[in-house]
Design a protein that fits this description.
- There is one protein chain.
- With 108 residues, the protein is an alpha+beta fold.
- It is 30% helix and 28% strand.
- It is built from 3 helices and 4 strands.
- It has helices at 2-7, 19-36, 78-85; strands at residues 41-48, 51-58, 88-93, 99-106.
- β1 (41-48) and β2 (51-58) form a beta hairpin.
């Protein structure tokens, strides 16, 4: 879905983000919602001025924590991956107690 968004007519020229990186960021952020909350989530993608903004919102008040994954652990690296791929990564409080995770990706 993310790669299709980035390669469709009208979007491809306005965003320099790598489609593979963008897809991985979306996958990890949505997986975190399903794994760590009992909330549905909302996904927003916006390509503008060479930058892709990915927003994943949920109704949980729990904020994500960036922590190092221990050796031998099979999970727990999603937010580290997003942090490494994104130009910026922010957590915004939602108006009704939830939150939005916003990651921006740019080319190069």
């Amino acid at each position: 879905m993310t790669a299709a968004f980035l390669t469709r007519d009208g979007t491809a020229g306005s965003c320099a983000a790598d489609p593979g990186d963008a897809s991985l960021v979306v996958t990890e952020l949505v997986a975190n919602v399903t794994r760590h909350t009992r909330s549905s989530c909302r996904l927003s993608l916006c390509a503008q001025d060479g930058t892709l903004t990915v927003e994943v919102s949920d109704d949980s008040p729990d904020r994500p924590r960036l922590r190092p994954a221990g050796e031998g652990q099979e999970s727990g690296r999603g937010l580290l991956i997003v942090h490494a791929l994104a130009h910026t990564l922010d957590v915004l409080d939602g108006p009704a107690g939830g939150k939005t995770i916003r990651a921006t990706l740019s080319g190069g």
